[in-house]
Amino acid sequence: MPKRPKDSYAVEPRKLPSGRWKGRVVRYDETGKRREMTQTFDTKREAKQWAEHEAALYRADPNRKPPSDETLAQFCTQWVERLITVAETTRADYRLMCRHVSPALGQKPLKNVTAWDLQTLYTELAQRLAPRTVRYVHAVLHRALKDAVAWGLIPQNPADKARPPQDRPQPISPPPLDDVQAFLAVADHHPLKALWYVMALTGLRRGEALGLQWRDIDWDRRTLTIARTIVEKSGIGRAIHQPKTAAGRRTVAMSSFLYQILREHEGQQRLESQAFTGWQNDAGWVFTTRTGQILSPRNVYRSFQRLLTHAGITRRVRIHDLRHAMASYWLANGVPVKVVSERLGHADIRITLQVYGHLLPHMQAEAAEQMDALIIKPAGETETEAGPQTGRRNSSISEDTP
Fold first, then answer.
1. How does the average pLDDT of the chain come out, rounded?
2. Residue ranges of domains in the chain
3. What is the DSSP letter of 140?
4. Which CATH architecture has domain 78-161?
5. Which residue among 115, 210, 329, 333 is least packed, with the fewest CB closer than 10 Å?
6. Is CATH 1.10.443.10 correct for 177-359?
7. Using CA atoms, how far apart are residues 242 and 244, in angstroms rounded to an integer?
8. Contacts of 323 (CB under 8 A, 6+ apart)
9. Low-confidence ranges of the chain (pLDDT < 70)
């Protein structure tokens, strides 16, 4: 029997007693010595794909070193730090998600991680984390392992076949109008009065409102342009980001009342800048500390909670609920969904409908009543009184007439 050429090749996968499959690759090192690599998979197809992939890599580069025993945790840590096109706040989020992996699966070699391993991880995480968080862990792992495939570290992405829990968000419940009015009554005497009114009357996110600069206000057209957002993360501090989508960078109209509030705030800030010798606001931030510094989102949140207490509001209200409240009031008062979506900066009107659609049941009844008024002749009304019945076909016209 002729000798097999000293070239790497894949061996037919072997089924294990556990029901899983072992992929095998035979290769020869630089001295001609035979080496065998193995890895276990959930299916025969996966084992075969891996073996053929590894064998092809060794045939293309006989001097290629075999995959190291780098663990999943080690790989994820290095992967996060090597990312170039992400903001530092996003990198911080990725680090946090990777830390969820370490206790249960982090010490397993990257090359041995399977879809079953990830599925088990998600099940364990779901016992103590919200479904949305587990899905975020999955999203980060999926991206990391996709890069591992692209870099030739693993033949395929095990996260492709793992299924995180479904995220079933609870329908939002905006604070009632009475609560918002009570909050603004107290906020009327607060140093950040203008900020609270901007958020309550425009639906801007906290970071978007804090990112406003005076040059973003067009006094003649009475508009605000959202061009940046302020974010704050542990270990990083405050950062200035551009809107994530084109829809996020938008211009919204302000009411006459809000126009007056901001004019008063502008004058007050000018007086403060003249009274304080250490004033620093070269960027022209609309909302600042008493010394002209950019506001901390966390401190703004604390101020918001104190105002809720002073207003006697006991139910749990987040600062983001001001945005939800504004959106719900617009929709309830007949503002078109597309206009609401544009003001909120949603990338797609479907997002608006998904978040706020449950608040619109009255539109079904209104649509039905409008059709009655448009098509059905009111009782006792003659045809002459009702005017021409444009919805009824003239009997003298042939059915074939287009």
1. 84
2. 9-60, 78-161, 177-359
3. H
4. Orthogonal Bundle (1.10)
5. 333
6. yes
7. 6
8. 199, 203, 204, 205, 344
9. 1-6, 29-30, 63-68, 169, 235, 361-367, 370-371, 374, 377-402
